[in-house]
Amino acid sequence: MQRYFLSNSQFQDDTITIGGEDAHHIARVMRMEEGSQVYCCNEEGKTAVAEITNFTNEAVTLHIVKWIEESKELPIQVSIASGLPKGDKLELIIQKATELGAHRFVPFNAARSIVKWDEKKGIKKVERWGKIAKEAAEQSHRSVVPTILKPVSFDFLLKESKNYDYKIVAYEEVAKTGEMSRFANVLTNMKPGESILVAFGPEGGLTEKEIVLLEEYGFIACGLGPRILRTETAPLYVLSAISYHFELQGVK
Amino acid sequence: MQRYFLSNSQFQDDTITIGGEDAHHIARVMRMEEGSQVYCCNEEGKTAVAEITNFTNEAVTLHIVKWIEESKELPIQVSIASGLPKGDKLELIIQKATELGAHRFVPFNAARSIVKWDEKKGIKKVERWGKIAKEAAEQSHRSVVPTILKPVSFDFLLKESKNYDYKIVAYEEVAKTGEMSRFANVLTNMKPGESILVAFGPEGGLTEKEIVLLEEYGFIACGLGPRILRTETAPLYVLSAISYHFELQGVK
């Protein structure tokens, strides 16, 4: 069943009103009719089954059939801080990491980021990232769309990190020494509802100076196994492992 | 340090001879000189540090400095059987799953595969897949390049499955019932050196009939968490979880 992410103002008592692109999608793309049902998620991530009662030129009106209980979200909030990579790699990260349950994206300008952020062109890019995240959230049946910050400075990342319960940084040099247990130890200590910020370098990796600063701010440098993962693969590894740990192994 | 995957015939006592594309890569792309060192892996996945001793127009000669002990491979052998997906999704699966430690790829024609396999054009495609796997293995510092079969029939997949110690199939309908523990249970039962075949549907998923047949052949239908993963994301989840389970949690 199709899923739409709506703002709270679209919900009024038992009635939902959908306009704009979503209305176009319902009427023209999906060619739904009166009586068709869809999932509607509000800003808190609560999901209602709703039935279409009326079409006008501008909007679709729906009636809430029932609110459903479902937990499609990871029990911990995972924020992905990627050192700005080249090309469209961040798009792949956002799409796949959203499917895998990421809560927030914090791209940052790393010392070895080759791409320089263009404030003017950047607005369009951030909009595009938001669209990718929304589509991936719908497709994977999530009840929350992750938020995406426009790229921040490394200093901002350090300050921002104080808002998280746990902070780790993926660092292959740690993996080379055979250190493998830190990431698993962090997850074992975490409780449902807590938050974690995970930092990743761009293609060339983080500099030693950046690692030292991150560690000063309480980031734990973790290895992700003996193989060297690309900058766009490492976040997918981390999110998959978190899902496996909390959702499949049932370690709560 | 650069890594090259060679055939056993290129090794003779303490000398290695490299021709063709790899020689071009060493001499022209990397612009190495006499005295430069590289990693050379043989067909058994053993890795030598070798030093360049001579260049000719056609070949590079190297002297083996030492054989090194390293274990970059997952302790269990994971084969990925993907229902043939659309477009270049299998390329993404092969690249990322190779980074994450896959041992073998078995693409198969699923009932809902939209792509029809063209035997003529197919040869080029399989060659391209092999190249992607080789590059990803080099980049991620693996000591083995995964093998890739040309797409097989569903019947072949069923027969082939008898050669594996464990067989699972990712099935989202199982996940919807809240079943979450089967995959973790399988991993807990597995011992180093054992093999597992993991089957995934194409975009439209596997049919009920296919699931029934797979189960008759001993496949265990497993959910991969509450979110719906795309056909190209699910194999990456499975491999990441396997690495986390065996390499990071140290469950041996």
From TrEMBL, chains A, B:
Instruction: Please give the Gene Ontology molecular function terms for this protein.
Output: methyltransferase activity
Domain Ribosomal RNA small subunit methyltransferase E PUA-like residue range list: 19-63
**Cytoplasm among keywords:** yes
A GO BP entry is: methylation
Q: Which CDD domains match?
A: RsmE-like (cd18084)
Chemical reaction(s) catalysed: uridine(1498) in 16S rRNA + S-adenosyl-L-methionine = N(3)-methyluridine(1498) in 16S rRNA + S-adenosyl-L-homocysteine + H(+)
Q: What is its main location?
A: cytoplasm
The subcellular localization recorded is: Cytoplasm
- What's its top-level EC category? transferase
Residue intervals of the Ribosomal RNA small subunit methyltransferase E methyltransferase domain: 72-243
Q: What is its EC number?
A: 2.1.1.193
Per the record, the coiled-coil ranges are: none
| UniProt entry keywords in alphabetical sequence | Cytoplasm, Methyltransferase, rRNA processing, S-adenosyl-L-methionine, Transferase
Instruction: Fetch the Gene3D superfamilies from UniProt.
Output: 3.40.1280.10, Hypothetical PUA domain-like, domain 1
Entry's family note: Belongs to the RNA methyltransferase RsmE family.
Q: Main role? A: Specifically methylates the N3 position of the uracil ring of uridine 1498 (m3U1498) in 16S rRNA. Acts on the fully assembled 30S ribosomal subunit.
Its protein name is Ribosomal RNA small subunit methyltransferase E
Origin species, per record, is: Bacillus suaedaesalsae
